[in-house]
Amino acid sequence: MSSRTVIRHGLVITASDEIHADVLVEDGRIAALATPHAQSWTADRVIDATGKYVIPGGVDVHTHMELPFGGTHASDTFETGTRAAAWGGTTTIVDFAVQSVGHTLREGLDAWHAKAEGNCAIDYAFHMIVSDVNDETLKEMDLLIEEGITSFKQFMAYPGVFYSDDGQILRAMQRSAENGGLIMMHAENGIAIDVLVRQALARGETGPRHHGEVRKALLEAEATHRAIRLAQVAGAPLYVVHVSAAEAVAELARARDEELDVFGETCPQYLFLSADNLAEPDFEGAKYVCSTPLRPREHQASLWRALRTNDLQVVSTDHCPFCFTGQKDLGRGDFSKIPNGLPGVENRMDLLHQAVVDGRISRRRWIEIACATPARMFGLYPKKGTITPGADADIVIYDPHAEQVMSAETHHMNVDYSAYEGRRVTGRVETVLSRGEPVIVQREYTGRAGHGVFTPRSTCQYLN
Fold it and tell me: Rounded to whole angstroms, what are the CA distances from 286 to 203, 246, 295, 332, 333?
């Protein structure tokens, strides 16, 4: 059955333009844009966006729903996590399917399809975590690309779990140079970090703040440098995830000055939180344990500058929530046993809008780093990440003047605390469409589990 929606009188903001325009949606896609009063569209549904922004739905290309970690698992399911994403103005996530050592990529991917299928409120796609590089794994990478799984994550951290050595990394990069895939790298020197962890615990340094102190910025920078040079040897592109340290940003900037195909993302926690949070008393700092860790506040200036200069291109969340009670507190008396991860999928668009309000980035750059560039980076553009005829009607009506206080009492993520508790921000999602279907209407949830569908991706659109 055909359906038409018209969004009237809003300011349409994309990565390239700001224009007062009405938007016509037909059968789940954007059919046309026109200046107000220049057309006489009729529709089943009319949305008045007077005084509001009309923006593309956010694209969060780094989430971990239901991720097993440290003897527990992330507290958001695909159902609760995608619903929370919608509340925050995100209409597409790219989550990570996990290959366990001794198992195939296919087994890991099938397991994640089973978790997500029929449960998501918004559209989703997958990256593949490659934990066991061998001849069969390399062949499987080619097959997954044909299925729209076009990016593969490797870890220089977590020895004994996800860790790959330099030889394994090089082989996977060589394969991606041939098949068009994109290697995503968790760049921390995990072998050295494990030594520092053991030494800290032996000294009796067991609290959450020591998590950040042992995962040194120089070890993030060293691993970032090593990953860049391995990719250069392989002739492969590289995407470095959750960049947190000024020294790692400098490595990325140098590589990009050399015109290498090297890209980087950061996350809201590194832009808005710091090592001060890890040092909060009474074990409260455990709420902020994630890897890469929160850094001293002085690193933030480098991250913001890199977002303005495009040495960092994407802001994702690395959403991986664990409840304070019953999960984070597994690490009382031993910071190395605190599950690594923060909740944030619901907060990203609002925090970045606050950066617009504060003058750190422009409105168009907000949309670029949160919607358009992630969609391009991972082969979803222009289906996702923009408002243009033919694109999926993933649209957010955003009130730039509404004020809100972030809190666990009002958020929709399935976790018992907010990393941004009490933070006042200006700007709030009002209405969300996913493929033309209303998911949030005037701050009321109208979506449903199963509306979101798996979305195959093409290869990175920034490569020649």
Answer: 19, 23, 14, 9, 11
Residues 230, 166: contact at Cβ < 8 Å?
Answer: yes
Q: What is the per-residue pLDDT for 70? A: 81
Block means of pLDDT (10 residues each) for the chain, 464 residues, are 89 98 97 89 95 99 94 96 98 98 97 98 98 97 98 96 97 98 98 98 98 98 98 98 98 98 98 98 98 98 98 98 97 97 98 98 98 98 98 98 98 98 98 98 98 98 86
Show the DSSP H helices in 324-449 as ranges.
Answer: 348-357, 363-367, 373-377
Q: Which residues contact 114 (CB under 8 A, 6 or more apart)?
A: none
Beta strands in 334-435 (DSSP E): 395-405, 424-434
Greatest Cα pair distance, the chain, in angstroms, is 74
Count of alpha carbons within 13 angstroms of residue 394, beta-carbon side: 31
C-alpha span between 373 and 60 (Å, rounded): 10
- In this prediction, residue 121 carries a pLDDT of 98
Please state, in angstroms and rounded to a whole number, the distance separating the CA atoms of residues 319 and 153: 16
Residue type, 252: L
State the pLDDT at residue 1: 58
Q: Kindly compute the dihedral angle of the four CA atoms of residues 426, 359, 221, 170, in this order, to the nearest 10 degrees.
A: 80
The answer to whether 460 touches 379, Cβ cutoff 8 Å, is yes
Do residues 322 and 75 make contact, with C-beta atoms less than 8 angstroms apart? yes
